[in-house]
Design a protein that fits this description.
62% helix, 283 residues, alpha/beta, Pyruvate Kinase, Chain: A, domain 1
């Protein structure tokens, strides 16, 4: 009985922690959700606009639009700095690793301590890391990540840039997402109408200079939008995980209380039997 009471007390202490973390995550989720709602339309419109331009570019030849010989791919992986958020990090990392093959080399730029630690433990080389920004990402961080990615691309060290983050669907649903940023994917509408629109498109001063300006801004916006969406997904996943942990603690406490009461009843029954047995022996 003493061991059961000690275990009940320990689980109650753990329940207080998980309940508190769940409340904190819920408060952070509300703030992150407001930032996400404010930036979501711009993020999605930027992606679709650049893809439409790429689809309408006709015969324009530019490194940002074509990938002739891909030998090394860059993955920008956005994870959390802290754990206790369920499968948020591992689901994204597994999605990235499932796309890796042996015929190419891979370079990683990681935002978030959990993703960095996972990749390093498994022997992958992390080119740059950005820590302690997952919950409050700033545009300056996204601009620096985009600058590093473009520097690697223009230097010929990578021929393809991918962005891996967790897409926010609902408060109880988040999904790993991997986007190819460079070469710029062509939207289906743009591909179908590309030949007609190419004759109507006029680039000033030239198509190369226009794309040189647009694509870096597009990469910055894409990385920043992904970081904002990942932050709200992280808080939603943590709140769900902490709520589940609190519910599990309640179930464990109920089972232990039941076991304690049974042990207590057995002790009382045994004591009564001993008293009755002693009384009978005195007759």
């Amino acid at each position: 009985m003493r061991d059961i009471k000690r275990r009940i007390k320990s689980i109650k202490n753990t329940r207080q922690i998980t309940r508190g973390m769940g409340l904190v995550a819920a408060a952070k989720l509300r703030r992150a959700r407001s930032r996400y709602d404010a930036s979501r339309s711009y993020f999605e419109k930027t992606l679709s606009t650049i893809r439409d331009i790429a689809g309408h570019s006709g015969n324009v030849r530019h490194p940002f639009l074509q990938a002739d010989d891909v030998r090394n791919e860059l993955y920008i992986v956005i994870t959390s700095d802290r754990g206790l958020c369920g499968g948020y990090n591992i689901n994204l990392i597994k999605s990235v690793l499932s796309r890796l093959g042996k015929e190419r080399d891979y370079t990683f730029v990681v935002a978030g301590g959990k993703g960095r630690d996972y990749l390093i433990r498994r022997g992958y080389e992390v080119f740059r890391e950005f820590i302690h920004i997952s919950e409050k990402p700033g545009f300056a961080d996204a601009a620096e990540i985009a600058r590093i990615a473009l520097e690697l691309f223009r230097g010929g060290k990578v021929q393809k840039i991918n962005l891996a983050y967790t897409r926010f669907i609902t408060t109880i649903s988040q999904k790993p997402e991997i986007l190819t940023l460079v070469p710029v994917p062509v939207s289906h509408d743009g591909k179908e109408a590309g030949e007609q629109m190419a004759d109507l498109m006029v680039y000033e001063p030239s198509s190369e200079e226009v794309i040189d300006i647009l694509v870096p801004s597009y990469i910055q916006s894409a990385v920043y939008g992904a970081m904002i969406e990942a932050s709200v997904s992280e808080q939603a996943a943590r709140r769900i995980a902490m709520d589940a942990a609190t519910d599990n603690a309640n179930d464990m406490i109920d089972q232990l209380v039941l076991s304690y009461n049974r042990a207590r009843q057995e002790l009382i029954t045994r004591e009564i039997s001993e008293i009755v047995g002693g009384a009978e022996a005195l007759k």
